[in-house]
Design goal:
- The complex is a heterodimer of chains A (about 350) and B (about 260).
- In chain A, about 75% of the residues lie in helices and about 5% in strands.
- Chain A is mainly α.
- In chain A, strands 1-3 form a two-stranded parallel ribbon.
- Chain A is elongated.
- Chain B is of the alpha/beta class.
- A 6-stranded mixed sheet of chain B has the order 5-6-7-3-8-9, with helices on both faces.
- In chain B, helix 4 packs across helix 5.
- Chain B is globular, with a radius of gyration of 18 Å.
- In chain B, about 40% of the residues are buried.
- The chains are: A mainly alpha (about 350), B alpha/beta (about 260).
- Bound molecules: adenosine-5'-diphosphate and magnesium ion (MG).
- Magnesium ion (MG) binds next to helix 2 of chain B.
């Protein structure tokens, strides 16, 4: 005989079963077989065990050792059940996890504050030489995408305004709408969303990889402070980059509006900018920058907290990255709403 | 180097380098081993042994202060429990996976502790770091990033980093695993020389029986199934122990499958 292959095992084992059906203690001699697959032996053993047949399987001189490897009663181990959760359960659990993040982020902020005291006492505990590089990566590298997106946002805003305003012959006010809309809300918001996806996700992945590779533990055993070394430079980089990018966003957004004003509302650039200058107040821009500072803090804290919380290899890091981005987006929108309400409440609007 | 800083890191003349009393270790809620008690005098090479998953790496995490004991006491260098927030620890650590900083070259990984904890001029820092890399035979890979070198090289770079500040105690997690026999022998000899000539205390996790018999003064054998310390003592004595499980660990059945 040739090779007993796993693929053909069910058929062969069925044959063996019928052939030995009435034998008390059958002897299955494989000595005449040239080769046999391990999978075949496992299936044979399992079949004998399932039927409670005490068979004597022999491999002869050559295959004996291989047959002995599969000597015990082979029974299938039970698989871990992984049925998909009920949709509602899943949604509920996801919501609970998001709320759970809030407490862990607060705890993280507390630890950061304690570490900050240590770092202030001994500034060497921070890795400040990395800061310029981090600012460059979070800020300068994001300039093109921030420019394109905010230009288009200003452009779209201009078009929406144009339709309504031209009905009243109030074309000139398109610059007010775009100007205030960009500086107060859309500039900070869109830029924060971009940085959340670019830098926030990158920070979680980097720190998460460092965590699962025990690099963060290694840092600690060298007497260095992971917060000062990794978290604070990243937070600072975002606190510098995000407001700066927001200012850029404000400007290109207004340029987007200008294109609409000139091409479809018949305004001159000079008229557009004169109107802007007469209505935009410094506070419009400042309030947006304050928003962006709050967004930067939220993105940085959430991204670093999730990175530090990563465990369980690449998959764990991926999960943390997803959850960092989702949580940050949520935090950005909630902060936006809260701060805007606060501005109004204190008569700053 | 700042002599007073180094002197203050040395344990007192009589004190043990590492002292552990009735320690329970675990991961999360799972208890791995209970009632660990041992004491390592200065200058000893102490091996931590056990089957895979028995908690050897976890024990090291407790000894260096990365985990807080649920029960039991640890004293390192006569300074009480290790406190990683209190400045430079009196030990160097090599993690099982190396844990080199991925954004830094091999050389930068070794210079980092020197730059952070000494006031030496950068040229001197480079000299010391290069010498440490030379010790582990990695001078030629100084400018490589961790992602560009093999597992065995990563281990050796991590040993160099752990030795950078000449700590009085080192914790090595499987320094010989994944190394070719020649390099493994060199690392063993390095450890032996440092322990004998500079009174370095070495606690190392290892699987290599040859290495244990060659350099370990004493060893600790963890057992996963009974969650206990199976044995402590001279490996050469434990090899002929009356307890079959201990004897088995030191004399693995070779089944006579060696080729003629
Ligand atoms: N990061 C981790 N999180 C949770 N459990 C872990 C982790 N690493 C290891 N363990 C568990 O702890 C046990 C001991 O692991 P470890 O100390 O790494 O063993 P050893 O180094 O002796 O091979 C293992 O059985 C494993 O299940
Ligand atoms: Mg281990």
């Amino acid at each position: 005989m040739g090779r007993l292959e796993t693929r053909e095992a069910p058929a062969l084992i069925a044959e063996i079963r019928t052939a030995t059906a009435h034998v008390e203690q059958p002897t299955i001699d494989l000595a005449g077989v040239a080769e046999v697959d391990g999978g075949f032996l496992a299936l044979l053993r399992a079949d004998l065990a399932a039927r409670n047949v005490r068979a004597d399987v022999r491999g002869g001189e050559r295959l004996g050792a291989l047959v002995d490897l599969y000597r015990g009663d082979v029974r299938p181990l039970s698989r871990k059940a992984r049925s998909p959760e009920e949709l509602l359960c899943h949604v509920g659990r996801a919501a609970v996890i998001d709320v759970g993040h809030l407490t862990s982020i607060l705890a993280f902020t507390g630890q950061l504050a304690i570490a900050a005291v240590r770092v202030v006492r001994r500034p060497r505990r921070g890795h400040w030489s990395e800061l310029p590089y981090l600012v460059e990566r979070a800020g300068a590298d994001a300039v093109p995408i921030v420019l394109v997106i905010n230009f288009l946002i200003g452009f779209v805003l201009g078009y929406m305004a144009a339709r309504a305003l031209s009905m009243f012959g109030a074309n000139i006010y398109v610059s007010d709408l775009v100007g205030i809309g960009m500086t107060r809300q859309l500039g900070p918001l869109m830029t924060a969303v971009i940085l959340c996806g670019r830098s926030g996700a990158a920070y979680t992945t980097e720190l998460g990889a460092m965590k699962v590779d025990e690099e963060i533990d290694a840092l600690r055993t060298l007497g260095l402070e992971p917060f000062g070394w990794l978290v604070m430079p990243r937070l600072l980089a975002l606190l510098v980059a995000l407001p700066a990018l927001t200012l850029l966003a404000d400007i290109v957004g207004m340029c987007g509006g200008l294109v609409v004003a000139v091409t479809s509302l018949g305004l001159t650039p000079r008229g557009y900018f004169n109107e802007l200058r007469s209505t935009l107040t410094p506070w419009d821009v400042e309030s947006g920058v304050i928003l962006s500072l709050a967004f930067a803090l939220a993105i940085g804290l959430i991204a670093c907290e999730q990175g530090f919380a990563a465990s369980g290899g690449p998959q764990g890091v991926g999960q943390r990255t997803t959850s960092a981005v989702v949580t940050s987006l949520f935090a950005i929108v909630v902060l936006d709403a809260c701060i805007t309400v606060l501005y109004r409440a204190y008569g700053l609007s | 180097m700042r002599c007073e800083a180094v002197a203050s890191r040395l344990p007192g003349p009589a004190g043990a380098a590492v002292e552990v009393r009735d320690l329970t270790i675990g991961r999360g809620d799972v208890t791995l081993v209970e009632g660990i008690t041992f004491s390592v005098p200065r200058g000893e090479i102490f091996a931590i042994l056990g089957g895979s998953g028995s908690g050897k790496s976890t024990l090291l995490r407790y000894l260096v202060g990365l985990e807080t004991p649920m029960k039991g006491e640890i004293d390192v260098a006569g300074r009480g429990p290790p406190d990683l927030d209190a400045g430079l620890p009196p030990f160097g650590v090599m993690f099982q996976g190396g844990a080199l900083f991925g954004s830094m070259t091999v050389l930068e990984n070794v210079t980092l502790p020197l730059e952070e904890w000494t006031d030496l001029p950068i040229a001197d820092v480079d000299v010391i770091a290069s010498a440490k890399l030379e010790l582990v035979g990695l001078a030629s890979a100084a400018d490589q990033l961790p992602a560009q070198i093999s597992g065995g090289m990563t281990k050796r770079a991590a040993i160099a980093r752990a030795l950078a500040l000449d700590p009085p105690i080192v914790f090595f997690d499987e320094p010989g695993a994944g190394l070719d026999p020649v390099t493994a022998l060199e690392i063993d000899n390095l450890i032996l020389t440092l322990a004998r000539s500079s009174n370095l205390t070495v606690l190392m996790v290892t699987h290599e029986l040859a290495s244990i018999f060659r350099i370990a003064d004493r060893c600790l054998l963890l057992d996963r199934s009974s969650k206990r310390v199976l044995a402590i003592g001279d490996p050469r004595a434990l090899r002929v122990s009356d307890e079959p499980r201990i004897r088995e660990f030191f004399n693995p059945p070779s089944k006579g499958t060696e080729r003629p």
